[in-house]
């Protein structure tokens, strides 16, 4: 049964590959987030298939998906929903917003003010929305896949630290290699239309996803490995270039993502290698560098790699 679930998730990767060339690490990250019940922040310059990647994942899953284009004039009620007066019945009814879905694509999330961004905090953490004092649960599964552009700052807002911490991982999409870029053009020359994903078929149901999540919990975790996770996280707090290190929530996120990754690799137990594979995407957005380190060109990823290289690995 467990092997069958892994094959289904491999089929999801195959379906996504029909539309997206390369970006294997990003696809793996999204699948890990699905298994770990986490949210994903996708960062990359325009044109590297951030939105197409999420839409392709949605098409390969039998899940309800909603896309919201975040703009400066977007209001919290436009995301969560609001109470409106129904003249026909003479009563106030709640109209659900786009957040009531399985997969929410928050496109260019940093283009809306913090007031609207904060509307997602409760949804991302509590899996519910409270409007007019009434809490309403969100569907299960529920995942937010947000995109942002790292090079264009005009008309954007910095995401609050509390919101960043709600993302399980931050995945950076790089420009494709030359052969991958050639393959993109070959597909376009052959008639591929990124707006038409009807050729992709759903291969994983919500019930099968929940079964896979349950199987992830069977991956064994030893005390030594748990100590290694804590040592990595504590290393970010004492690094000279770091102003704000990773919180205990980040340690729990690293454990959850690494466990899901170990299950995908058919490993019976969690090992330091799995944790190291997940350290950068899970921790990079939870660290704030000192201003002087940023001026010197120090990057968060470089700091994390240095910590991974220096923290003792349990035998």
Walk me through the structure.
The chain is α/β, with parallel strands linked by helices and 315 residues long. The protein is globular, with a radius of gyration of 20 Å. The chain starts with a helix and ends in a 5-residue tail after the last helix. 46% of the residues lie in helices and 16% in strands. It has 14 helices and eleven strands.
Helix fraction by DSSP (H/I, runs of at least 4): 40-55%
Question: Strands across the major sheet, in which order?
Answer: 2-5-8-1-9
β-strand number: 11
- Structural classification: alpha/beta
Q: Number of helix segments?
A: 14
Determine the strand fraction and express it as a percent band.
15-25%
- Uncertain runs: none
Mean pLDDT: 88
- Series of secondary-structure elements, N-terminal to C-terminal: HHEHEHEEEHHEEEHEHHHEHHEHH
Sheet having the most strands: 5 strands, parallel
Shape estimate? globular
Radius of gyration: 20 Å
Distance between the termini: 32 Å
Summary?
Helices cover 46% and strands 16% of the residues. By secondary structure, it is α/β, with parallel strands linked by helices.
Descriptive tags:
globular, five-stranded parallel sheet, alpha/beta, 14 helices, two-stranded antiparallel sheet
């Amino acid at each position: 049964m467990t092997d069958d679930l892994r094959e289904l998730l491999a089929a999801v990767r195959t379906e996504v590959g029909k539309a997206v060339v390369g970006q294997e690490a990003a696809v793996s990250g999204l699948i890990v987030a699905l298994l770990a019940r986490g949210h994903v922040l996708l960062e990359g310059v325009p044109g590297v298939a951030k939105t197409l990647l999420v839409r392709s994942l949605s098409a390969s899953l039998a899940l309800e998906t909603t896309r919201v284009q975040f703009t400066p004039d977007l209001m919290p009620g436009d995301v969560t929903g609001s109470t409106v007066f129904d003249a026909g019945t003479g009563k106030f009814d709640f109209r659900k917003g786009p957040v009531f879905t399985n997969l929410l694509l928050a496109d260019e999330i940093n283009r809306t003010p913090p007031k609207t961004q904060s509307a997602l905090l409760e949804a991302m953490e509590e899996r519910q929305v409270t409007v007019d004092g009434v809490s309403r649960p969100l569907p299960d599964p529920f995942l937010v896949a947000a995109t942002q552009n790292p090079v264009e700052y005009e008309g954007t807002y910095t995401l609050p630290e509390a919101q960043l911490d709600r993302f399980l991982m931050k995945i950076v999409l790089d420009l494709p290699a030359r052969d991958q870029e050639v393959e993109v053009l070959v597909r376009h020359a052959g008639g591929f239309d990124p707006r038409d994903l009807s050729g992709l078929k759903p291969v994983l149901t919500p019930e099968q996803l929940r079964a896979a999540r349950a199987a992830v919990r069977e991956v064994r975790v030893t005390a030594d490995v748990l100590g290694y996770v804590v040592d990595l996280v504590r290393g970010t707090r004492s690094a000279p270039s770091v102003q704000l290190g990773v919180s205990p929530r980040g340690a729990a996120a690293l454990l959850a993502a690494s466990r899901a990754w170990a299950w995908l690799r058919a490993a019976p137990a969690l090992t330091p290698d799995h944790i190291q594979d997940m350290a950068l995407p899970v921790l990079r957005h939870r660290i704030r560098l000192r201003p002087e380190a940023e001026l010197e060109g120090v990057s968060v990823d470089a700091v994390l790699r240095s910590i991974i290289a220096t923290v003792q690995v349990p035998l």
